Amino acid sequence: MYKPTINTSYKGVCRLYETCGRSDYCLRAAEDILFIHGFDIRKTPGYEDLTSDQKELFAAHCVKYMNSVGMNTKITMYPKAVHFVREYQYCSFPEWDEEIQKNIRWQIGREWIILKANGRTRKFKKYLDDDRTEADIDKTVTKEFEYLRVDWRQNGTNVWFHVTAPDEYY
Predict the structure, then answer these.
(1) What are the C-alpha distances in Å from 77 to residues 24, 60, 67, 151, 153?
(2) What is the pLDDT of residues 93-105, one digit of tens each?
(3) C-alpha gyration radius of the chain
């Protein structure tokens, strides 16, 4: 597993940007991440399971996301995992809401299935609200989405992003 930028001083990382000709402190490509921040995004867990298009999308996301944060955050961050996933959003059966005077369905859980480039799948994560069970899921309204999920470690915490190609909107 990686560690955040090897050269963790603010000034040291700024010098690396300037050495690469990046006086605006913006990354241009995945190679910049390797040279300046010292980790290869191609070694991120899950990378080998992506198609070539998904790998390009992941590289573009890494560059764009790292450019969107400040230098102090950049030196603490790295991608923990990347997967192309199918997400299921589970809803409850209709329940009458007195306030709005109509039946509503609540989202009560989610599940993520990893879709590998070779066609295989693997369960990634699943959760249901604390007081809910499988019997509470109305299978007729399950929503399904597919996207690149990127998990980051930054500033000592974990965050994840739902990444789609620029022309895809949900």
Answers:
(1) 19, 16, 12, 11, 5
(2) 999 999 999 999 9
(3) 20
